[in-house]
Amino acid sequence: MIDSYLKSGKLASKIRNDASKMIKDGTLVIDLVEYVESEILKSGAEIAFPCNVSLNEIAAHYTSPADDKTTIKAGDMVKLDLGAMIDGYIADTAVTVIADGNIDENYTQDEINLHEEIVEASAAGLDAAIATARAGIEVSKIGQAVHEAISEYKLNPIFNLTGHSLEQNNLHAGISIPNYDNNDDYILEEGQAIAIEPFATNGKGIVNDAPGHYIFSYMANKPFRMKSTQRVLKHIQHNHKYVPFSGRWITEEFGIRKGNIALKQLSEAMAIYPYAPLREKQDCFVSQKEHTFIIEKEGCTITTL
Q1: Which of 61, 164, 240, 291 is flagged as catalytic?
Q2: Which residues contact 271 (CB under 8 A, 6 or more apart)?
Q3: Which of 89, 236, 238, 266 is a plausible cystine mate for 272, CB 3.0–4.6 Å?
Q4: Residue 290 designated active-site
Q5: Looking at the structure, do residues 167 and 225 belong to the same domain, yes or no?
Q6: Is-catalytic flag, 92?
Q7: Annotated catalytic residue 213
Q8: How buried is residue 110: exposed, middle or buried, by Cβ count under 10 Å (0-12/13-18/19+)?
Q9: Of the listed 61, 115, 172, 291, which one is catalytic?
Q10: Whole-model pTM above 0.90?
Q11: Which tens digits make up the pLDDT trace of 201-211?
Q12: Residue 103: pLDDT over 90
């Protein structure tokens, strides 16, 4: 088990670092997403969830639909969040990069300075979590450490987003790791795998759903009159039963029209769960940094360094 966590972590780290170099003015988001996902598959691993590329005020849960024309601009705050899976054991990691290019065309120097501070704040929050995480500690203490580190920048964490525990074939295994002291007295145990992901913002620190649904997860088998929808559901059950999947993958397999109709019907029937992109409530900028940890008696092993 530990060996598989370490292997998936090493792979995810390499792909994250390589993909980060693509984040620059003019890069299409779909090119970045498809690069990450193809590299995971070429390595012989599995995709643990669709690659997320969330820009600026979007905190999470954006991945490209088919024919996505979204383009990164110089100075954009780009959150790259990816997951690789070996033998069902997941590495979940994220980084925020300020896109290279002629930044002055899009942002003032004061705005760029603020963006850099927000990025530093989420990294500081993760460093504080690393220093705090160990067997026997309450998860709220990790959240407290994250919050205190981000507050030093006079910024806020995202209060309604959390890290999470990991288990084999299970990305969100039931335990939440908060980004503030939420009084959760759950105590971490040696050998547990967790992903800690501090988000920092110059806003209030609350995210709401934004329009669109691009990521889904399987929920239940349901009957459908349309044969094409039945076929899509069977495909999901066979290929994506345990971890989230991209709507783009479905439209590539079944065509854009049939795929989107099926995704809508499946969502409405609660056969699958649709995830909306998450936007900061005040449309303020958001950064994220994330690593996967194995909890140890006196600390933790970071698998995604």
Answers
A1: 164
A2: 218, 219, 220, 221, 222, 233
A3: 266
A4: yes
A5: no
A6: yes
A7: no
A8: exposed
A9: 172
A10: yes
A11: 999 999 999 99
A12: no
